[in-house]
Structure formats: structure tokens, C-alpha cells
Amino acid sequence: MGRQIRRTEIHARRVRTKRLKQLQARYKDSKNASEKEEILAKVAKRAPWLAGETFLALVKKS
Question: Which of 3, 4, 8, 36 is the most buried (most CB within 10 A)?
């Protein structure tokens, strides 16, 4: 039973990482402030611990 939970957690982590990378790319390509705010809201839903300054630092770094 514990094995299935672990597999689910790993899958969720991989999907979250993939989605965050997509959002980073969209943030870089966005032109206006409203698009950027929308993307930051989506990041806050996906990874609350990553929202804000941390996400922006990752975008600048990549």
C-alpha cells in the first residue's frame, strides 16, 4: 500500500515541475503586466512556497 502512495507523489512532483517550467517560459515571453500577474497567480496555485520573489529569481536565472 505504501508503494502506491510513493508512486503518486513522484508523479505529482514530475507533473508540477513540468508545469512550472512551462509557466517560466510563458512568463519570459509575456509582454504586458496583466499576463505576468495571471502567470504568477497560477504559480501560486501550483506551488505556494515558490510564488513571488523565488519564482522571479528562477526566471531570471534561467
Answer: 36
- Taking the CB of residue 55, how many other CB atoms lie within 10 A of it? 20
pTM higher than 0.85 for the full model? no
The DSSP element (H or E) to which 62 belongs, if any, is none
8 A C-beta contact, residue 12 and residue 3:
no
Q: Tell me, what's the pLDDT at 59?
A: 87
Task: Output the pLDDT for position 19.
Answer: 96
SS (H, E, C) the chain: CHHHHHHHHHHHHHHHHHHHHHHHHHHHHCCCHHHHHHHHHHHHHHCCCCCCHHHHHHHHHC
